[in-house]
Amino acid sequence: MYLWKSWRDARLSVAIFFVPIVFMLYGLLRHSPSVHVQTSSQASVEWMATRWLSIAGILLLFVAWSLGGDGIGHDIAEDRGAFLLTRPRLRRFFVWSDSGFSFGLMAALAWGLTLLFVLLTIVHVLEFPPGVSLSPLAFLLIPLSGVVFAGLVYSVTYLCTMLIPRDKTARVISVAVLIGYAFLYAKAVRTWGGVTQYLFPSWWVDPFPYQYSSAVAPHVWLELGVRAIAILVLLLAAQFVLEMREIRA
Amino acid sequence: MPELAPELAIATRGLVKRYRNVDAVNGLNLSVPKGAVYALVGRNGSGKTTTIRMLLDLARPDAGTAHVLGMDAHVDRVKVLERLGYVSDRPLLSGWTGEQLVRFNRGFYARWSDELVARYVRVFDIPMKQKFRNLSRGNQTKMWLLLALAQQPDVLVLDEPTAGLDPVVTDQLLRVLVEDVASEGRTVFLSSHHLAEVERIADWVGMIDKGKLLLEAPMEELRAKFRRIQVAGVAEMAPAAAMRVRRSGGSTEYVVRDGAEEFVDALERGGATVLQSSPMNLSEIFLECLGNDGKEFEGGKE
After folding, report:
1. What is the ipTM of this complex?
2. pLDDT for A173 beyond 60
């Protein structure tokens, strides 16, 4: 039943997510004879799929941010905590139900976008040389990197709504944290170069960074794993805050 | 920790809650018998809602314990909440209709009864297709109560259930509490400062002020023991048992908490003429316990 509530809270964001996708598809299909990206650039299909997801993924980030701001912290800020948190469930149930639903939805959207890319290649809207197709590894890694990226955005926003009692303030601060960290990362890369990626990980892991090669980025699983741990830590922190938090009644 | 009597639905022992330097609840020892309609009465800010929040595990005590049906309100929160219904004036899910709220809530409770939903929709006449935020204040409270009753709780906790309601809705709610809930042996614990309403339905009363329990007793006992005694002239010496003494004109008025007959005998032995010995209603008892000037009754509950 709580998942039903999660879906009701998320459905507007999902609808907004699909509006530009539909427009993009319409544009691609309308001009399909002229879109022969691969033929002109010779870029690898994995590299292209990753760019596709990173562009369409902006929409995924919006969904992640929106889902992060719509969890139980939002309900508490809206004074619904006394109702929800007197249902017979442990407080952590609400954190992990919110997160389980959100990650499920983000994963569905990320794999859906990747599948859409594959479909566009099948119907020759995006054209690649004969025999070239997305490998199973790429089909796993590209959306996974999108989910991890979206998951970080979700977790930061979720924790902010748990820490900051005012709903809008929490959402604004989460955006500030996300942009601020990206800015610091860019600054660090410029100052210290490649060493930074281990000390100062970026929000996003690019699994196929080589334009003309299908090679996977070095230590990609480690990089994704570190970020997955960061997501877990952020959500555990949110759980801790919720368990300590006092609710108005 | 002291042994908790199994016949208690709610028991708090030495319960303390502080906010900065304010003791919202200060060493509260409540004993709510199973099957009682227990009213926790007190002024605004006396600690009623804070006590309820600790019973529901919405706030954590700084000291002491809160038990519901013999279970710790924090440690056994899920088991407690399975058997406890709660009614508040806070929003439910505002954009949801009554039907959706019922559907949402049903999944949380093993003992949920759709028959009870149908019955109370009829009794309360709630427009179930309207969104919660569009319901009147009275219907919002009814919706809370409907959801709480359909889960068939052993203990029903209501925080100021009649605040802001018109007399018709108030009467309707109170009748349901007495006729449907209390008559089935379930416990009703409500906070209120509407003493006339409390007097109609409660069989136990706890008076709280500044987070402390001033008095806890069955309603009948309060009615039987508290007496206002008017004496012509000024008695030689006011017996020490008097809770309050007021002199005006040619008469003296005593308020006694217990032993009114012995008190009257003592006055008459002292040569005073007792004009009247009358029982007091809950509002009068409340005012006397708190003091009309807000000064606390010193001889409160041990």
Report:
1. 0.86
2. yes
